[in-house]
Specification:
A hairpin with a 2-residue loop joins strand 2 (142-149) and strand 3. Helix 4 (68-89) crosses helix 5, helix 5 packs antiparallel against helix 8 and helix 7 (160-178) crosses helix 8. The chain has helices spanning 15-33, 36-46, 57-60, 68-89, 91-112, 124-137, 160-178, 191-207, 214-219, and strands spanning 2-6, 142-149, 152-159. With 222 residues, it is mainly alpha-helical. It contains nine helices and three strands, in the order βααααααββααα. It has a three-stranded antiparallel β-sheet with strand order 1-2-3. The protein has one domain (2-219): Rhomboid-like fold (Up-down Bundle).
Length: 222
């Protein structure tokens, strides 16, 4: 299932979301300019390597990507869900929230793979936090989703709570299935980092006291 757009309107321009996408794009284009040896060194330097953790890498790793599909998929999910979360948090809280979710996701990954020497990169953990916050604040929003039916593709509107809950369960069972075959020796998807980011988002969105959407804010005064 591929989300295409959501039904929840945003009442302020998603400036921080756009800036995050632009920074990720700039870094990814820089990665593409590197030769194979330089790219591997760059990723090992700024990615999360649990066995020799540098705390700065918890931040830098979330702006690196391993390929076009990794980059485009992450930025697409951020674009769909990020504007509404930014709208209710405000720009500065939202930036803190995004980075904090990414750090939380990285720490969960380190805890699950403490001896791994394989660099882990990607914005997935931070974006999972945005998705967790979206599920808490906009569970009844409808997500227009592309769904394969046998040899055809169709679109259906799915409640946000359902599609995001399904996504979280998929991460959980995939993570359980990967135990023993994790990134420690082979690389792969950091499933538990996604779960950690998602849960961090669900918690942080409550602690940061988000404001209601602008339309509801107006209703409070009229």
């Amino acid at each position: 299932m591929i989300p295409l757009r959501d039904s929840q309107p945003s009442y302020s321009p998603p400036v921080v979301t756009i800036l995050i996408i632009m920074v990720n794009a700039a870094v990814f284009l820089y990665e593409l300019s590197l030769d194979h040896f330089s790219l591997n060194y760059f990723i090992s330097l700024y990615g999360i390597v649990p066995a020799r953790l540098e705390f700065s890498s918890l931040l830098t790793s979330m702006f690196l990507h391993g390929g076009w599909m990794h980059f485009l998929g992450n930025m697409w999910f951020l674009w769909i869900y990020g504007d509404n979360v930014e709208d209710i948090l405000g720009r500065f809280k939202y930036l803190f929230f995004y980075l904090a979710c990414g750090v939380a996701a990285g720490l969960v990954h380190v805890a699950m793979n403490p001896d791994s020497r394989v660099p882990t990169i990607g914005a997935s953990g931070a974006i999972a936090g945005v998705m967790g916050a979206y599920m808490v604040k906009f569970p009844h929003s409808r997500i227009l989703t592309l769904v394969p039916v046998f040899f055809f593709l169709t679109t259906v509107e799915v409640p946000a709570a359902l599609i995001l809950g399904y996504w979280l369960l998929l991460q959980f069972f995939s993570g359980i299935g990967s135990l023993g075959y994790s990134q420690v020796s082979q690389g792969g998807v950091a499933w538990f980092a996604h779960i950690g980011g998602f849960l961090a988002g669900m918690v942080l969105i409550r602690l940061l006291h988000p404001r209601p959407p602008r339309r509801r804010r107006r209703d409070l005064y009229w």
